[in-house]
Specification:
alpha+beta, 603 residues, 21 helices, 5-stranded mixed sheet
């Protein structure tokens, strides 16, 4: 099928192949079969007598439809169209001079496209303008702006690959080299570490600050996981340990934008310098040996060189200018700590290294951050605000602060005798005097008695407690039970119910008086002792009535009729007990009166 290809297409295939294009890419770009491309590349086909395209024939009326053969490329280049690739010519080619003029004026591609459409009534697309300008090579890339810093203003930090360590077993262990460079003088510090953890990172920075003898205002780092929890150009989330480290040294960490190494270009070149000059081709037997070599290399090589940008000796510039501009170091090194998230248990404590430390009551059941070192334990809320601090304790011990105990959970015994006596003073003078004397007499067991005295105020008036306390003090009674009894005894008197003179079920007292007199008199016969209890129509039947019921022997069915007090069957209550005169001795002088109070009133 090669005889169907034009000469321009064949030339395009060979030209693209000479530029290093693969056969698959050439076939995809020209829209032909890959096997056809292979035959022309390897010379398996015979060139066809293809007609010359319109552009070669010299007809520029429709140059966009001409295939991009060698002749077409030469024609475009001679016309000033710039370098071209395979494909159709740009629709912007007739407006080349217009586009160049607008680019010189500083107009954007969007503005150039709008002017071509509005002013020249063309139908070119924005993408066509963009591709045409790119082919012209006139896209203006803005130059990078160099940022030079004042002395003591900034230091840049980064990690790189260190020299391997030969282990005793013959294996090599990989290392990482930490490097920090002061941006003004280019004074640097290097240290090899095994891992890029937060602890290693912080310790390396701290060693560098003490090596410099001061602290820069800002530390520019990349977004390594040991330092940045959540990268964000506008508001990054730093590791809490690193934040605490910055507070301790009075500096600020500024992470760069992700995948933008030019934001810390000074340290990027510095890492390459230490890798290529100090460590390349070297191995060490220990990490300490490598760090000693790096320290000596910084002192003898890096510090003594004339820097290519500043054109000044590094060590001299640092000693004369930047050392004095650094902030002073703190009194002691950063107290390195461990941290973890903990839940406040139901007893109001958090567990740290098998010891327990109290937290404020409002954080019960919530999650908090805990940081601890060899000396203290600090508790923070979710905003990293310190809410408690404790001295470090041994495992199994509890550290409870009084401010972390709810007032409702503090008993009077815990508050002490002084607090209880202060509250008792509010009851009254006698209560306070009794409480103090009782406590002096009974000692420590009197603490609960003070609580009991306070509880009496919840049920009784202060006047009753004062009166009972005064009485107890006069007798020297120091028991709470005595106070309770005295309060009950001197309590409010019960009101006396009015006595009813008459009631349907209660006999009048006069009836009982008659009954007593009849029982005490010496009756000669039942006739003389006859008493008529007929009051209210429900009294005891008299002798006259009993005679009708007596047997011939003179004895009634219920005994002597004069002493019968049995009520009638219709009487509402059988509560009265009958008195039987037959049981009384006939000798009234020897009778012991059962009712001596009534004897003086007898007729």
């Amino acid at each position: 099928m090669s005889n169907l290809l034009t000469m321009a297409m064949v030339q395009s295939i060979l030209s693209l192949h000479a530029q290093g294009w693969s056969q698959r890419r050439i076939a995809r770009a020209l829209g032909i079969d890959r096997e056809t491309v292979r035959r022309h590349v390897h010379g398996d086909s015979k060139p066809a007598n293809a007609p010359v395209g319109s552009a070669i024939a010299g007809d520029p009326s429709n140059p966009a439809n001409a295939p991009l053969g060698s002749a077409v490329q030469e024609a475009v280049q001679s016309a000033g169209g710039g370098p071209t690739g395979p494909g159709r010519l740009s629709d912007c080619l007739p407006w080349r001079e217009v586009v160049l003029a607008k680019l010189e004026s500083g107009l954007s591609l969007t503005r150039i496209h709008q002017d071509l459409v509005n002013e020249h009534q063309t139908q070119v697309s924005y993408d066509s303008v963009r591709r045409f300008v790119k082919r012209l090579g006139r896209t203006r890339a803005l130059p990078y702006r160099r940022m030079e810093c004042e002395p003591g203003e900034e230091a840049q930090v980064d990690f790189g690959a260190g020299a391997p360590i030969l282990m005793p077993d013959g294996k090599r262990r990989r290392t990482h080299v930490f490097r920090i460079v002061l941006s003004h003088s280019r004074k640097a510090y290097s240290e090899a570490v095994y891992r890029q953890t937060t602890e290693d990172f912080i310790r390396a920075i701290e060693n560098a600050l003490w090596h410099f003898g001061g602290v820069p205002k800002t530390l520019v780092i990349d977004n390594l996981k040991a330092a940045v929890k959540q990268p964000d150009w506008y508001d990054p989330e730093l590791n809490p340990k690193l934040q605490e480290f910055c507070r301790h040294y009075g500096t600020v960490v500024l992470p760069t934008k992700s995948y933008t190494p030019r934001h810390k270009g000074k340290i990027e070149r510095g890492i390459g310098h230490v890798k290529g000059n100090a460590l390349k081709g070297r191995t060490f037997e220990s990490l300490e040996e490598q760090n000693r070599h790096l320290l000596d290399w910084e002192r003898t090589v890096a510090d003594t060189r004339i820097h290519g940008t500043t054109h000044k000796q590094v060590s001299k510039q640092f000693a004369e200018v930047e050392r004095a501009a650094l902030r002073p170091l703190p009194a002691e090194r950063f107290p390195f700590f461990h941290e973890a998230e903990r839940s406040v248990n139901r007893d109001g404590h958090v567990e740290v290294a098998k010891a327990y430390y109290s937290a404020p009551t409002e954080y019960l059941g919530r999650r908090v951050w805990v940081r601890w070192d060899s000396r203290v334990v600090r508790i923070f809320n979710h905003r990293l605000e310190q809410i408690a601090i404790h001295v470090r304790h041994e495992p199994g011990r509890f550290s409870t602060q009084s401010v972390h105990i709810a007032a409702e959970k503090i008993s009077g015994v815990e508050r002490g005798a002084t607090w209880l006596l202060t509250k008792i003073d509010r009851i009254g003078v006698h209560s306070s005097r009794w409480a103090k004397a009782m406590l002096e007499t009974r000692g420590i067991e009197g603490i609960r008695v003070l609580q009991g005295l306070l509880s009496l105020a919840n049920r009784h008036s202060t006047e009753a407690i004062e009166r009972a306390s005064e009485t107890a003090c006069s007798y020297g009674a120091w028991r709470l039970r005595t106070l309770r009894q005295l309060i009950d005894r001197h309590g409010a008197k019960q009101e006396t119910l009015p006595f009813l003179d008459e009631h349907p079920i209660i006999r009048p007292l006069a009836d009982y008086g008659q009954l007593v007199r009849a029982a005490l008199l010496k009756p000669e016969s039942c006739d003389n002792a006859a008493v008529d209890f007929s009051r209210h129509g429900s009294g005891v039947r008299g002798i006259a009535d009993d005679r009708q019921q007596q047997s011939p022997g003179g004895i009634g069915r219920q005994g002597c009729g004069a002493s019968s007090t049995r009520p009638r069957s219709g009487y509402p209550s059988p509560g009265c007990v009958p008195a039987e005169p037959d049981s009384v001795s006939p000798d009234s002088s020897s009778v012991v009166h059962p009712f001596p109070l009534f004897k003086e009133h007898l007729p």
